[in-house]
Design goal:
Chain A is mainly β. In chain A, 8% of the residues lie in helices and 35% in strands. Among the domains of chain A are: 31 residues, no CATH class; 77 residues, RNA polymerase II/Efflux pump adaptor protein, barrel-sandwich hybrid domain (OB fold (Dihydrolipoamide Acetyltransferase, E2P)), CATH 2.40.50. In chain A, strands 4-11-9-6 form a four-stranded antiparallel β-sheet, with no helix packed on it. A four-stranded antiparallel β-sheet of chain A has the order 8-7-5-10, with no helix packed on it. Chain B is α+β, with helices and mostly antiparallel strands and 324 residues long. In chain B, strands 3-4-5-9-8-7-6 form a seven-stranded mixed β-sheet, sandwiched between helices. Chain B has a five-stranded antiparallel β-sheet with strand order 13-12-11-10-14, with no helix packed on it. Classes of the chains: A mainly beta (159), B alpha+beta (324).
Chain lengths: 159, 324
């Protein structure tokens, strides 16, 4: 569960980033942040965001009984330990050039210095290194896609 | 040794309109007249032409056009850029050497220059023609203490440096096409490709690759780029001294880089905008799975391109294929 300090940090990070919407869910706690008209507002998905508000309020639906772990959906949750995120806004490239193989594929083992992709902005090609060791279990971006600062690109399971 | 030669060149440069005696130089440098004479011989090997007349002294009649580590470092005006310098007559790509050196720990400001690149490359491995002694083909290794998302600004900075050098040296009027192609009369004269190795919050190194077409004629410019590219010689009808232009580019780059580190991107932004190409006009823009027509408005404080969509909304682009 996130504490107040962590939520404030999150808000600050998102405020400074180019991310417009952010959702975090863990053990029945859900935090949704969405930027509107240059301001940061929070809202639960079912509510429409309050426009003109400047105030950032915490709306975490905290279960009274923390033991009540919600049932596992059984879908999207691939087991992973790390996420490799984009250090900048730009275009995601899975391969060094269009006619070459992708840097990594699902099931590949990566080391901390393995190049996993390129993110390009203003003709600067940033080779992203894994920074962790393990197995690539999920690739979250598509070749040629625009990615945001902090957007998860790969999920890695420690070996 | 190196610094003595540099001083000697400075002295000769300052006195290029009159003769200076060997004795004067030996006093100024604190070395014997024989040593001065030996240094002169070395300079001549690298293409300096020095006239010596007895009882009058020496005078430089011609500075070298030949590119070598010596000619690039002697008379250099930089403090840190190009202090480690590698010159190859022929190589695949200066970018590859730059990467290798960077991995081996070469210092910030290392410069790699080639007379000819056999596999000069542009974006997506597109070929960059880099023919023998006809242009500047070089890479600069940088280790900026910046966050990775600030690094692209250095590529815009490099374009303003090249535009400045072209403008001040040749009097031509260059433009910069976002983000960093330099054009003269709508044709490309220079391209910049930058590759970076970075962690989330730290840049390990950047290799900034610069290509400038200098002395190609219409005939010697490769066929496939004739329609879209040009050279300083084609535009000015003058042959340019490549060695001087490299030194000038490095001196300007160092100055612009230091001011960027101290003052941020703002001065670069104004400079960039003074050269901006097609601002106010409409172009076709291709981004991921989307193609639109939009008007170019300017650049943001971080170098991103601001466009106005047909519905009137503004958008900033960090990466896009623009059909100019």
């Amino acid at each position: 569960m996130l504490n107040m300090q962590e939520i404030q940090n999150l808000i600050k990070l998102i405020d400074e980033s180019s991310i417009d919407e952010f959702t975090y869910e863990s053990n029945g706690t859900k935090v949704s942040l969405r930027k509107q008209k240059g301001e940061l507002v929070t809202a639960q998905p079912s509510f429409s965001p309050v426009p003109q508000t400047n105030k950032v309020s915490e709306q975490t639906a905290i279960n009274a009984e923390p033991k009540e772990v919600p049932e596992d959906d059984g879908e999207q949750t691939t087991d992973f330990d790390y996420e490799i995120v984009s250090p900048m806004v730009g275009t995601f490239y899975a391969a060094p050039t269009p006619d070459k193989d992708d840097y990594v594929q699902i099931g590949d083992t990566v080391k901390s210095d393995t190049v996993v992709c390129i993110v390009e902005a203003m003709k600067l090609f940033n080779e992203i290194e894994s920074e962790v060791s393990g197995e690539v279990v999920e690739i979250l971006a598509e070749n040629g896609e625009l990615v945001e600062y902090g957007q998860p690109l790969f999920r890695v399971k420690a070996k | 040794m190196e610094s003595t030669r540099n001083l000697l060149i400075e002295i000769l440069e300052k006195n290029k309109n009159n003769y200076i005696s060997g004795e004067q130089m030996s006093k100024m440098l604190g070395i014997s007249r024989t040593a001065v004479w030996k240094h002169m011989k070395e300079l001549q090997k690298d293409g300096y032409e020095i006239e010596g007349i007895s009882k009058k002294g020496y005078k430089i009649t011609q500075f070298p056009s030949k590119v070598s580590v010596n000619t690039l470092q002697w008379g250099s005006k930089t403090k840190w850029l190009g202090k480690t310098l590698i010159h190859k007559h022929s190589t695949g790509s200066t970018q590859i050497i730059g990467h290798q050196l960077a991995v081996e720990g070469t210092p910030h400001g290392t410069v790699v220059v080639a007379d000819v690149q056999t596999e000069g490359k542009g974006r997506f491995d597109r070929k960059w023609h880099s023919s023998n002694n006809k242009g500047i083909w070089m890479s600069i290794v940088l280790r900026p203490n910046l966050l990775p998302n600030q690094a692209p600004q250095i590529t815009l900075l490099a374009a303003t440096v090249i535009a400045d050098v072209i403008k001040s040296k040749t009097g031509l009027s260059p433009n910069i096409k976002w983000p960093n192609d330099v054009l003269i009369n709508n044709k490309k004269v220079s391209g910049i490709l930058t590759e970076m190795q970075a962690e989330q919050d730290r840049i390990q190194y950047m290799v900034l690759g610069i290509g400038i077409n200098i002395n190609q004629s219409v005939e010697t410019l490769a066929n496939d780029i004739k329609a879209s590219a040009t050279s300083l010689r084609i535009e000015s009808t003058i042959e340019w001294n490549i060695r001087d232009l490299i030194q000038e580019t490095l001196a300007h780059f160092e100055q612009a880089y230091d001011s960027f580190i101290d003052e941020g991107f703002s001065p670069i932004k104004s400079k960039w905008e003074s050269y901006a190409y097609m601002i106010g006009q409409s172009v076709r823009i291709k981004t991921f799975k989307k193609e639109t027509t939009a008007q170019l408005i300017g650049i943001k404080e971080d170098g991103a391109l601001i466009i106005k969509n047909e519905d009137g909304s503004h958008e900033s682009l960090y990466s896009a294929e623009i059909q100019w």
